Amino acid sequence: MATTTCTRFTDEYQLYEELGKGAFSVVRRCVKLSTGQEYAAKIINTKKLSARDHQKLEREARICRLLKHPNIARLNFLCFRVTGGELFEDIVAREYYSEADASHCIHQILDSVHHIHQHDIVHRDLKPENLLLASKCKNAAVKLADFGLAIEVQGDQQAWFGFAGTPGYLSPEVLRKEAYGKPVDIWACGVILYILLVGYPPFWDEDQHKLYQQIKAGAYDFPSPEWDTVTPEAKNLINQMLTINPAKRITAQEALKHPWVCQRSTVASMMHRQETVECLKKFNARRKLKGAILTTMLVSRNFSGKLFGCDEAETQTTVIHNAVDGIKVTHHQHHHHSFSFLPTIRPLFDLHPHNEIIKITEQLIEAINNGDFEAYAKICDPGLTCFEPEALGNLVEGMDFHRFYFENLLSKNSKPIHTTILNPHVHLIGDEAACIAYIRLTQYVDGQGRPRSSQSEETRVWHRRDSKWQNVHFHCSGAPAAPLQ
Questions:
Q1: Which region, left, alpha or beta, applies to residue 187 given φ > 0 means left and ψ of -120 to 50 means alpha?
Q2: Which of 184-198, 279-293, 426-440, 462-476 has the highest mean pLDDT?
Q3: DSSP one-letter code for 250
Q4: What is the per-residue pLDDT for 49?
Q5: Which of 64, 205, 302, 395 has the least CB density, counted as fewest CB within 10 Å?
Q6: Nearest to 124 by CA among 215, 190, 56, 185
Q7: What does the longest C-alpha to C-alpha distance in the chain come to?
Q8: Alpha-carbon distance 130 to 112, whole Å?
Q9: Quick one: which H or E segment has residue 356?
Q10: Minimal CA–CA distance to 241: which of 174, 311, 172, 158?
Q11: Is residue 40's pLDDT more than 80?
């Protein structure tokens, strides 16, 4: 009788450094001992998975085993490394980028979508973050990744498979909670193509309800001057992809035969699109921010509690919580930030990690109020990124920008400052990351001795390294975070 020999993973592969980490898994580089071929191994802690997560894991593995295509990043929990990074990040680093380049990109994306649709699989989460490059070489293949939300369908079956996807890329039928199928991927391709051509999305609003209304109405256009230099054929393809009625929407197979895609050398413009590259840089920065904070935002501005006065020339920080039984935050599943509904979670002080994040945030603000750059730098990551009013809408990276204010303004400020943190909302992202959103109310005395107040809405992203929390990203809107005069 034949016997089956089982070998351990470590007998055939050597594990190396960590490449990425999720809530329940870690991805590490590994090398097959017999060939020297590099792979990426996804190691999952199944003890932390619920029964439903087990089902999702099995579904993702089953789907990925079905797909073998040069434009799909395979994930059998042991896969070839995709080392080129994100497509959109590569585009902004290019010296030359034209409409023809955009055509080449969407061709590869459509080719991979056509392949999965042939296998009766719907991705459901097509977006820039899931478009990777096979390597850092010039003209590297675009790889479609992350099948965590993918579903299996029966041919052209339309059914309600649940509300899933990423807000700006959701199709009208999903938002209307109607039956849907393969056309949802084509809609997302239309959004991606629009961005590839001008660097910003066709549907956009900070208010998610208004964003969804735009999508359901198909309310987009081709404004001047940026669209004046885009060929009519490119606009025609976008229109066919962003058709509200899914039954009339172009298919992946049909889109691949569109002249702008299959005859790009003669149809698509070769003119360099510098404005698109510049807009795409800003778009990349915004979506990186959104991904980092998981679109956590304040949903309540009903303040309660007491503001404590400041009688001496010293700094104070007060935390005031909303007087409700629970708080709500926008929450994403652990499938690379894919949208789900708003869950209610317990009050902040029921959970120790939430306390820890609030405490470290208080310490950071106290360092700012004291003008203590040394204390501030110890709490912040050296590569801290931020959006704040003083940066005039730009994404700032590193500590030099902050050092200037500490050395020239904050350290010389002898006026009393009292800061109140209103309604802190903490969201934990696994065991090693968290973000906190709050309203910061600062009371101070101006140069004429008059009491003043300033208010800002702030979000801070924290990452724990070697058991120490560090601020890795900061986003402030409203008044400057600290009184500078």
A1: alpha
A2: 184-198
A3: P
A4: 65
A5: 302
A6: 185
A7: 95
A8: 12
A9: helix 352-370
A10: 172
A11: no
Which among 239, 243, 261, 251 has a CA at the least distance from the CA of 185?
251
Residues near 219 by Cβ (< 8 Å), separated by ≥ 6? 203, 213
Whether residue 120 lies in the annotated active site:
no
For residue 28, give the nearest of 49, 9, 50, 52 by alpha carbon: 9
Contact 144, 107 (CB under 8 A): no
Which of 443, 440, 414, 332 lies closest to 23 in space, CA to CA? 332
Q: Is 378 known as a binding-site position?
A: no
Lookup: tokens for 79: 């896969």
According to DSSP, the β-strands at 417-429 and 433-445 are: antiparallel
CA distances from 252 to 244, 344, 358 (A): 16, 39, 48
The encoded tokens of residue 340 equal: 């789900």
What strands, in cross-sheet order, belong to the sheet with 468-478? 315-320, 417-429, 433-445, 451-465, 468-478, 380-387, 396-397
Bridge partners of residue 344, in order along the sequence: 328
Residue ranges matching CATH 1.10.510.10 in the chain: 82-290
* Token output for 21: 């980490």
Length of the chain equals 485
Q: What is the DSSP string of 83-122?
A: -S-BHHHHHHH-S--BHHHHHHHHHHHHHHHHHHHHTTEE
The tokens of 74 are what? 């395979």
For tokens 């680093």, the residue is 93
What is the domain class of 82-290 according to CATH? Answer: mainly alpha
Give the C-alpha separation, 109 to 418, whole Å.
Answer: 53
* Contact in structure between 220 and 214 (CB atoms under 8 Å): yes
CATH code of domain 354-478: 3.10.450.50
Report yes or no: 117 and 256 within 8 Å, Cβ to Cβ: no
pTM of the model: 0.56
pLDDT above 50: residue 311:
no
Residues of the chain with CATH 3.10.450.50: 354-478
Q: How far is Cα 196 from Cα 128, in angstroms, rounded to an integer?
A: 10
Contact 190, 238 (CB under 8 A): yes
Q: Specify the DSSP class assigned to residue 314.
A: S
Give the residue from 29, 31, 25 showing the smallest Cα distance to 40: 29
Q: Which of 90, 101, 111, 125 is catalytic?
A: 125
